[in-house]
Amino acid sequence: MPVTVLLVDDEPLVRAGLRAVLEAQPDIEVVGEAADGAAVIPLVRQLRPDVVAMDVRMPLLDGIEATRAVLRTVDAPPKILVVTTFENDEYVYEALRAGADGFLLKRARPAEIVHAVRLVAEGESLLFPASVRQLAAEYGRSGGNRAARAAMDRARLTEREAEVLRLMARGLSNTEIAARLVVGTETVKSHVSAVLAKLGARDRTQAVIAAYESGFVAPG
Amino acid sequence: MPVTVLLVDDEPLVRAGLRAVLEAQPDIEVVGEAADGAAVIPLVRQLRPDVVAMDVRMPLLDGIEATRAVLRTVDAPPKILVVTTFENDEYVYEALRAGADGFLLKRARPAEIVHAVRLVAEGESLLFPASVRQLAAEYGRSGGNRAARAAMDRARLTEREAEVLRLMARGLSNTEIAARLVVGTETVKSHVSAVLAKLGARDRTQAVIAAYESGFVAPG
DNA sequence: GATCGTCTCCCCCGGCCGGGGGAGGCCCGT
DNA sequence: ACGGGCCTCCCCCGGCCGGGGGAGACGATC
Question: Response regulatory domain: from which residue to which, for each copy (chains A, B) (predicted)?
Answer without folding.
Answer: 4-121
